[in-house]
User: Fold this.
Amino acid sequence: MGCSGLFLFYWSVIVSLAAIAFADDYDNYFLCRYVEDKGNYTANSTYQANLNRIVSQLSSPTQFNYGFYNLSAGQSPDEVNAIALCTGDRTQVECNSCLNRTATELMQRCPWYKEATAWSQFCLVRYANRDIFGQLENEPRTCAFNPKNASNPEQFNDGLIELLNNLSNIAAAGGPLRKYAAGNLQTIYAAVQCTPDMDEQNCTACLNYGREELSKCCKGRLGCRVLRPTCILRYESGPFYQTAVPPPSPPPSPSGREGLARAPAPPKLLKFNNFFYFF
Ligand SMILES: *[C@@H]1O[C@H](CO)[C@@H](O)[C@H](O)[C@H]1NC(C)=O
Ligand SMILES: *[C@@H]1O[C@H](CO)[C@@H](O)[C@H](O)[C@H]1NC(C)=O
Ligand SMILES: *[C@@H]1O[C@H](CO)[C@@H](O)[C@H](O)[C@H]1NC(C)=O
Ligand SMILES: *[C@@H]1O[C@H](CO)[C@@H](O)[C@H](O)[C@H]1NC(C)=O
Ligand SMILES: *[C@@H]1O[C@H](CO)[C@@H](O)[C@H](O)[C@H]1NC(C)=O
Ligand SMILES: *[C@@H]1O[C@H](CO)[C@@H](O)[C@H](O)[C@H]1NC(C)=O
Ligand SMILES: *[C@@H]1O[C@H](CO)[C@@H](O)[C@H](O)[C@H]1NC(C)=O
Assistant:
C-alpha cells in the first residue's frame, strides 16, 4: 500500500513535469483547418497581400478589447475579414504574442485557402472572404485529445458533463465583451469560451455542439480540446488556466459633460465555487 502510494506519487510528479514541458512547446498545440469550397488564392495575389495586412494588424493590436478582434483588409472581391480571440485568462502581452505566432503559422501551414482557422493553446484566428461577424459556424472544426484514459471513465464522464454544462451556461450569459468560464470539479479542470460576437443563443448552440462532439471524440480521455470556429472547450486532469484577467477600468469620465454617452462599465470579476463569473 505504502509502496504503491509512493510509486504513484513519483509517477504523478514525472507526469506533471512532462505536462509542463509539453505546455511550454507552443507548436504542440497549433492546429489549422480550412474550408475547401470557399476558394483558393494564389501566390502574390491581392488576397494574399490583404491576408498579410491582417497578420500584421494582429501582430500589433493596439487595444486589448478583452482579447477579441474583428478585422478587415482590402475591398471586395479580395476583402479579407478576420476574427481573433484569446482565452479569457491571458494578459494583453500573452495575447498579442499568441495572435502574432498563430496568424503567421496559419498562413504558412494552411496556405492557399481563402477561408481557414487556426487554434493554439491560448488563442484562435480565422479569416474568410465573406462576412463572418456574429454568425455561428460549424466548419472547419477539429478535436485533439490526450491519449491517456481516465481510470474510472463513467464517473469521470458524469462529473465532466455536469461541470461543462455549468460552465457553458456561465460563458453564454457572459455579455458582449467576453464569454468565458473556467472551473474545476475535484481534479477535472475545464474552460469553455465563445467568440463574444455570438449572442447568448448562438454561444449556447455552439457549446452544445461542442459537448456532443466531446462525448464522442474525447470519450474516456484524461484531457481533450474541442475546437470550433466560434467556440472552444477544453478539459484536463490538472490546472491549465490562470485566474481570468479582469478587464481594465474605463478612464474616469470628465465631469459636467452629462450629454456624452458613457463607456459601458467593465464586467466585475467574482470568484464563487471555483467559477469566475462576469457581470
Ligand atoms: C486549392 O489549393 C489546394 C492546396 O494547394 C489544392 O489541393 C486544391 O486543389 C486547390 N483547389 C482549387 C479549386 O484550386
Ligand atoms: C511572387 O513574388 C516573389 C517575390 O517577388 C517571387 O519570387 C515569386 O516568383 C512570385 N511568385 C509567383 C507565383 O508569381
Ligand atoms: C511577430 O513575430 C515575428 C516572428 O515570427 C517577429 O519578428 C515580430 O517582431 C513579431 N511582431 C510583434 C509585433 O511582436
Ligand atoms: C466587424 O468587421 C466587419 C468587417 O470590417 C464590419 O463590417 C463590422 O461592422 C465589424 N463589426 C463590429 C461590431 O465591429
Ligand atoms: C446566429 O447564427 C446564425 C447562423 O450564422 C445567424 O444567421 C444569426 O444571425 C445569428 N444570430 C444572431 C442573433 O446573431
Ligand atoms: C484508451 O481507450 C481507447 C478506447 O477505449 C483505446 O483505444 C486506447 O488504446 C486507450 N489508450 C490507452 C493509452 O490506454
Ligand atoms: C452545477 O450547478 C448546479 C446548480 O447550480 C450545482 O448544484 C452543481 O453543484 C454544479 N456542479 C458543478 C460540477 O459545478
